[in-house]
Specification:
Blueprint (H helix, E strand, L loop, with lengths): L7 E6 L3 H14 L6 E7 L3 E3 L4 H5 L9 E3 L8 E13 L4 E6 L13 E6 L2 E4 L3 E3 L7 H4 L1 E2 L3 H19 L4 H7 L1 E5 L3 H21 L8 E5 L11 H14 L3 E3 L6 E3 L2 E4 L2 E4 L2 E4 L3 E3 L3 E3 L13 E2 L5 E2 L2 E6 L4 E2 L13 H19 L14 E4 L5 E5 L2 E4 L1 H14 L3 H14 L10
Parallel strand pairs: 1-2, 1-8, 2-5, 5-19, 8-22, 10-17, 11-12, 11-17, 12-13, 20-23
Antiparallel strand pairs: 3-4, 5-6, 6-7, 9-18, 14-15, 15-16, 21-22, 24-25, 25-26
Length: 436
């Protein structure tokens, strides 16, 4: 694409919820003034990933294509350049970003050399998202299966199927049960939804595919605190536990702080639980990136999020915006930070685009304000819980609300239609039990 003379370069880092909605926000505001800005999007992946549906891929309810959308098929009038690569350094003083571009495959199938690129920016919107937080627990990084990206979801699905394949050849009852014992660490939204979907998958499709292993599988959900989905109230915790335990057969354990993970399972204090498959859903932290600045940035200690002002910019650099899971933003009314959730990330991305527009044309910046739209959590086939506009909804109505809400946020008509069709088919037909 030809260079734009005198245009201000806006660089967006990341193609998750915050990054994509930042681009769509720029597209909406600069569509008629596209010559005023040059937009560059940099991401580790060449697609947008609907992160909150990863558990559906991991349990055969959706295919990877249902939850991804190619970056290059976003509205292209304002997207001047896309770079697929890892961001290794952001120099706030010089206004440059160091990128390791993705290796290109050579004709013989081997990877070529990594290309380093220095990219200048006038405005920066950093939306690099989050990564799994193992909390320095010994063995957690080496011996567990996290669920944070598409490859993680594929690995979990393949591991579950492999476990049934292995158990189908065993004769020792204890070995069979150890092989088919699946431990999920973390009772937040990801862990709870995965437990529900996995229980459905195991109890229905995999039991049908491996009839001699019926009743041999066990799913254990370990929560370190005294409440599942701790951001919600006691009613939510009680209902989630009832559905998982009574309806789906998941063994829920509270105050179960994992102290160690090995190839053979987990330890909770002096107790050992044997398992060949431990899935880690205990939390996330902001993705690490090397910020270079004469004036050090302020980080929140546990989540490692960057502290920003109400305009989502750095106090020392009004042209640099941090959004999504990477940003620590305090709600003025409650004094608490906004949670690391998709509905907040999308609004933050859009507001960053708005404030780029405001800054460029000399208008006052807008402060971030957002009321929680509610919370919906899926719990297996036709099961869900919702807390929306002060109303508590459970069962089939909540499940429909979950589907409608998520379909509304999926990007692209084709992807929406494909996902809706897949969900409809799965309501009447078995899930997919092939490896990915």
């Amino acid at each position: 694409m030809p260079a734009k003379t005198n245009a201000k370069r806006v660089v967006i880092l990341g193609s998750g919820f915050a990054g994509v909605y930042a681009y769509l926000g720029l597209h909406d505001r600069f569509h008629a003034r596209e010559r005023d800005i040059e937009v560059v999007l940099v991401s580790e992946f060449d697609y947008f990933l609907f992160l909150t549906l990863l558990q559906d891929v991991a349990t055969g309810d959706l295919l990877p294509a249902n939850i991804t959308y190619p970056v290059r098929t976003l509205p292209s009038c304002c997207l001047d350049r896309f770079i697929e690569g890892n961001i290794t350094k952001i120099n706030l003083d010089t206004g440059e970003i160091t990128i390791e571009e993705r290796e290109r495959l050579l004709p013989n199938g081997q990877s070529g050399e990594t290309k380093k690129t220095e990219l200048r920016y006038d405005y920066l919107i950093s939306a690099l998202g989050s990564e799994t937080n193992f909390f320095d627990i010994p063995g957690a990084n080496e011996f567990t299966y996290p669920l944070k990206n598409l490859e993680d979801a594929k690995r979990i699905k393949n591991r579950v199927i492999d476990s049934f394949e292995e158990a189908d050849e065993l004769t020792d009852e204890n070995e069979i049960r150890n092989t088919l014992r699946f431990i999920i660490v973390g009772g937040g939204p990801t862990g709870v939804e995965l437990a529900g979907e996995l229980a459905d998958y195991v109890n229905a499709e995999l039991t049908r595919a491996y009839p001699f292993l019926k009743g041999k599988a066990e799913i254990i959900l370990l929560e370190g605190g005294n409440r599942l989905v701790p951001q919600m109230d006691a009613w939510f915790d009680k209902k989630v536990c009832e559905i998982l335990s009574d309806k789906l057969g998941v063994h829920v354990r509270y105050d179960a702080k994992v102290s160690d993970v090995t190839q053979m399972g987990v330890r909770i204090g002096e107790e050992s639980i044997l398992s060949r498959t431990v899935i880690w859903a205990a939390g996330v932290k902001a993705r690490k990136v090397d910020f270079v600045s004469r004036e050090p940035l302020a980080f929140e200690k546990m989540s490692e999020r960057v502290k920003v002002n109400a305009h989502l910019s750095l106090p020392t650099h009004e042209n640099i915006f941090i959004v999504g899971d990477q940003a620590w933003i305090v709600d003025k009314e409650t004094g608490m930070p906004y949670p690391m959730r998709a509905q907040f990330a999308t609004r933050e991305g859009d507001l960053a685009a708005e404030n780029v527009y405001n800054h460029l044309y000399g208008q006052p910046s807008t402060e971030f304000e957002w009321k929680d739209l509610g919370f919906i959590i899926s719990l297996g086939k036709r099961g869900a819980l919702a807390h929306v506009m002060g109303m508590r909804i459970s069962g089939y109505p909540a499940w429909w609300l979950h589907r409608i809400a998520y379909l509304s946020k999926i990007i692209g008509i084709r992807t929406k239609m494909r996902t809706a069709l897949e969900w409809t088919l799965n309501a009447f037909t078995p899930r997919d039990v092939t490896r990915l």
